[in-house]
Design brief:
The chain is α+β, with helices and mostly antiparallel strands. The chain has three helices and four strands. The chain has a four-stranded antiparallel β-sheet, with helices on one face.
């Protein structure tokens, strides 16, 4: 018998089986409900909501500095004030007449981003609830 060196058919089959198992685990991890892509989408939504909270906080700070008069405040004014602090490309729509009374914002606005539509409830100048619907 000759002493030949090389890979045997059994070793090749075992290697292929191991690679298929690893590929299956990787695909499952990436595409499952708790996978990488789902987690990335959730992180994007949370990031957008944090940006919205910051925008409302900034608008509230401006309100307190300017001390808006409630008799002069319109629904559009409160919406426009919040719009100044969200990234360009996002749209802010007044849902439930946001008001500014004594320098404090209250009401509901809808913020539309490229991925989600967020409904934002504001009470006493603070975001009390944000619900997101994927587009």
């Amino acid at each position: 018998m000759r002493n030949e060196r090389g890979i045997t058919l059994v070793a090749l089959v075992v290697t292929i089986v191991v690679l298929l198992i690893l590929a299956g685990v990787t695909i499952t991890y990436a595409l499952s409900n708790n996978g990488i892509f789902t987690k990335a989408q959730e992180a994007g939504m949370v990031s957008e909501q944090a940006t919205i909270r910051d925008a409302v906080s900034s608008a509230q700070a401006e309100c307190m500095m300017e001390y808006y008069d409630a008799s002069k405040t319109t629904k559009t004014e409160a919406k426009d004030l919040i719009s100044k602090y969200v990234p360009s490309g996002w749209s802010v729509t007044a849902t439930t007449a946001p008001t500014i009374t004594g320098g404090v914002i209250a009401g509901t606005v809808t913020v539309a981003t490229s991925s989600y539509t967020h409904t934002v409830t504001i009470a006493n100048g603070v975001v009390t609830e944000i619900t997101a619907v994927k587009k």
